[in-house]
Design a protein that fits this description.
Nuclear Transport Factor 2, Chain: A; about 350 residues; about 25% helix; seven-stranded mixed beta sheet
């Protein structure tokens, strides 16, 4: 046992430097000191909750709407930032308009692996809700980061969207329709072009979106027939197309939405395709095979007014490319198709087609 007055240290000269160094006198004392240090470290760890556990407990309490539980993890004056942590941020409000928005539209979150460093915890969340479904936006990744103080209280919170150009939706199509039919309502719901979640807007958003969706027609029988089409590559700025071909599109089944088609070029068949309606996802699915060995897999929800967009992938010997085809019809006998490829997270023009129905 070490008594309070016992000196367990000894000063001795160092042969290399000539200076005195302090050593513990005997091994038993060294062993006892190590045990004491281990016990102190153990109890410190027990009394200092894991940062990830703090965040998970906080999120669980938020999910249960248990304010007394989640507020115990919050530091006074907690701040929140969007997109980037810049400036002082906003004071975090547990009952903000966005919180009520998420509750109204039944937000669903799927959390990935939590990561941590010296004073923060981060996670990537896949989020969706009823509004996403109405505007046909697929679940989008969001990165959440929390900063904790020395008492393991949350003092800062960053929300950063990781959605890229592949996370498309039909919000712009809805806005164009609403601007024409309900301009004042659109200005109320999206002042300055941005969604405002405050006051009675969630319910009014749901009502107008459902009305808009009732106006959307999906039938692709418009394409049935024989079409002459002219193609311009992205770098062709002239009025003369790079080449002209014929596209034939036919209804393939009597009582289901199924179509087959082919491109005829210089006396041969250059492409074959099939389009079917998936009644589970309410989408049209299209597979195109070409004479050079490429094939395409595309999907669309159908027409929105006079516009229709296919999105999907082109597979070739050199790899795969994300594609988008935007179609706009002008009357019953003519439409324009514009193709884009996703490069460096940007849609780049590939080619433009003008198709005219052959009488």
């Amino acid at each position: 046992m070490i008594t309070p007055t016992e000196n367990i240290y000894q000063d001795i000269p160092c042969l290399l430097t000539g200076r005195h160094v302090t050593l513990i006198k005997n091994y038993k004392h060294v062993k006892l000191m190590c045990i004491l240090l281990f016990i102190i470290s153990f109890f410190s760890a027990c009394n200092s909750p894991d940062k990830v556990a703090v965040i998970k407990n906080f999120l669980d309490a938020r999910e249960k709407r248990d304010s007394a539980a989640y507020m115990q993890y919050v530091a006074p004056g907690m701040r929140i930032w969007y997109t980037e942590k810049s400036g002082e941020g906003q004071k975090w409000n547990p009952n903000s308009a966005w919180t009520k928005w998420d509750e109204y539209f039944k937000s669903e979150k799927s959390y990935g692996e939590f990561s941590t460093d010296s004073n923060s915890v981060s996670v990537i969340v896949m989020e969706t809700n009823e509004l996403f479904r109405l505007i046909e936006r697929k679940p989008a990744p969001v990165q959440l980061t929390w900063w904790l103080n020395k008492e393991n209280k949350i003092e800062g919170y960053l929300v950063k969207s990781l959605a890229d150009a592949t996370h498309t939706d039909r919000l712009d199509e809805f806005a164009a329709w609403a601007r024409k039919n309900y301009p004042e309502e659109l200005n109320y719901l999206m002042p300055g072009g941005n969604i405002n979640p405050e006051e009675d807007r969630p319910g009014r958003w749901e009502k107008i979106l459902k009305e808009w969706r009732a106006t959307i027609t999906h039938d692709l029988s418009f394409f049935a027939g024989k079409w002459e089409f002219k193609i311009w590559s992205a770098d062709n700025k002239s009025d003369t197309p790079d080449f002209t071909a014929v596209w034939v599109h036919e209804k393939a089944l009597d009582s289901a939405e199924c179509f087959t088609g082919q491109v005829q070029y210089e006396g041969g068949i250059f492409t074959r395709e099939m389009v079917v309606r998936n009644n589970t996802t309410h989408e049209y699915e299209r597979i195109v095979a070409t004479n050079n060995g490429d094939y395409f897999v595309l999907k669309t929800k159908g027409w929105n007014g006079n516009k229709l967009t296919w999105t999907g992938t082109q597979y070739s010997a050199s790899g795969k490319t994300e594609l988008k085809e935007e179609i706009e019809r002008s009357g019953e006998n003519k439409f324009k198709a514009t193709f884009y490829a996703l490069e460096n997270n940007q849609w780049e023009l590939m080619q433009t087609e003008i198709l005219t129905r052959v009488k």
